[in-house]
């Protein structure tokens, strides 16, 4: 039976009919897998961002036009960026489908994993670009 509201149980079917949990250890492993996959998602986004930038550190100035900034290393950078985009999109949709199981533990594991992944991999880059936007001298 497919649930249409959140429920709290160790019995969950996740993504495939063969991925069913019926004991606490199997449920804990499922929650760990959801946590790790969702923590990996911001890492993929971070790597894709670095590939798009060409692996260079952020040294933007307010005088540098946005459209003239480095976007990667030609065709290889575009292909790598496209593959990383596809992989992160697929992982994002799988995480969404896992949350749509409506199991409360799975939901919390995914949200916690996304939060930890963001704090570890993406927090500092967002702070740098936010600082750039706040110092912009726009007339």
Written overview of the protein:
There is one protein chain. Helix content is 63%, strand content 3%. The chain is built from 3 helices and 2 strands. Mean pLDDT is 81; it is low at 61-69 and 130-139. Helix 1 (24-53) packs parallel to helix 3. It has a two-stranded antiparallel sheet with strand order 1-2. The chain has a domain at 71-119. It has 139 residues and is mainly alpha-helical. It is elongated, with a radius of gyration of 19 Å. The longest helix is centred in the last third of the chain and has 31 residues, at 104-134.
Q: What distinguishing features does this structure have?
A:
139 residues; mainly alpha
Write the layout of secondary structure elements.
Layout: E1 12-13, E2 20-21, H1 24-53, H2 74-99, H3 104-134
Antiparallel strand pairs: 1-2
Helix pairs in contact: 1-2, 1-3
Using the CA coordinates, give the radius of gyration: 19 Å
- Helix tally equals 3
* Sheet with the most strands, sense and barrel status: 2 strands, antiparallel
Mean pLDDT across every amino acid position:
81
Q: Major sheet: order of its strands? A: 1-2
| N-to-C SSE string, H for helix and E for strand | EEHHH
Structural class: mainly alpha
């Amino acid at each position: 039976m497919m649930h249409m509201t959140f429920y709290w149980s160790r019995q969950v079917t996740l993504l495939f009919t063969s991925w069913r949990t019926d004991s606490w250890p199997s449920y804990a492993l499922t929650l760990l897998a959801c946590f790790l996959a969702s923590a990996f998602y911001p890492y993929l986004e971070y790597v894709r961002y670095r590939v798009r930038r060409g692996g260079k550190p952020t040294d933007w100035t307010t005088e540098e036009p946005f459209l003239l900034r480095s976007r990667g290393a030609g065709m290889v950078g575009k292909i790598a960026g496209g593959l990383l985009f596809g992989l992160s999109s697929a992982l994002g949709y799988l995480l969404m489908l896992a949350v749509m199981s409506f199991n409360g533990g799975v939901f919390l594991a995914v949200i916690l994993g996304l939060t930890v992944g963001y704090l570890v991999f993406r927090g500092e880059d967002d702070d740098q670009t936010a600082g750039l936007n706040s110092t912009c001298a726009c007339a």
